[in-house]
Amino acid sequence: MGKTNLETVLQDTLQAGHKICVPYIMAGDGGLSILEERLQFLKDCGATAVELGIPFSDPVADGPTIQQAGIRALNEGASLSAILAQLSSFQHPAPLPIILMTYLNPILAMGVDCFAKKCSSSGVDGIIVPDLPLEEENLVSDSLADSNIALIRLVALTSPEERITMLADKSEGFLYAVTVNGTTGGRDAHANDVGVYLQQLKTQSTVPVLAGFGISSPARAQEFASYGDGVVIGSKIIELFQQQRLDDIRKLIALQ
Ligand SMILES: O=P(O)(O)OC[C@@H](O)[C@@H](O)c1c[nH]c2ccccc12
Questions:
Q1: Which of 6, 85, 212, 245 is deepest in the core (most CB within 10 A)?
Q2: Domain assignment of residue 105, yes or no
Q3: Which pLDDT value is given to residue 185?
Q4: Mutation test of ligand 1: which of 104, 155, 213, 249 has the most ligand atoms closer than 8 Å to its C-beta?
Q5: Whether pLDDT at 1 is above 80
Q6: Nearest-CA neighbor of 85 among 38, 121, 125?
Q7: CATH number at residue 48
Q8: Smallest Cα–Cα separation from 207: which of 23, 52, 14, 43?
Q9: pLDDT of residue 206
Q10: How many domains does the structure of the chain reveal?
């Protein structure tokens, strides 16, 4: 697949001398009617793109903060089709590129082709599917390529060398470097060798390398962004929205 729109926006950001920051929020947390305003706020804070979670009943990779956000969103009636409909009803095009984070099941339930077309007409630029292994990607890859939607691959600290090479080769949009062994959520400590891991990935990947999982302070965001090309921050952003600490969200997103 050629360069996706997402990749172009990310590369332009780097070329302008900035690091990339992708906050994650759960779609429907607080109701779908606030989604457009939240995206605009994140853009105004300096976010490069947004990762938008689709709430799901069995979120295996998610820690407690994101699980609870998912439960709130499901209670508000959010679903994959309602979220896509909301995105396409925006008054203006989405203020910044949108990456959907969804498990495989809702995609298969909707039908892969229908999902890819709806994503494309709703302004979605990329997707992350954490329970879709490399070996099963052909389930979705043709439909996504037809709609020019980037399939973002995740690499883990424990991924063997060969697998990292395969993932780095195939990567579209960006390569998601998971920086912990475990589920999402804030942590005080990361392993010491994360810097080496990110620098290594950067030499192997043709797309930007973003670090994510457990980043909850501006200092850590800055540090990880300096090894790679930027960061993804989820649980902490969700907590700060819950506490209405908008200034702290601004500080977390504003990377040097
Ligand atoms: O919440 P954290 O620890 O800041 O990590 C980002 C993460 O939430 C987001 O990218 C994400 C949410 N759910 C996921 C499932 C798999 C991979 C990534 C994700």
A1: 6
A2: yes
A3: 86
A4: 213
A5: no
A6: 121
A7: 3.20.20.70
A8: 14
A9: 92
A10: 1
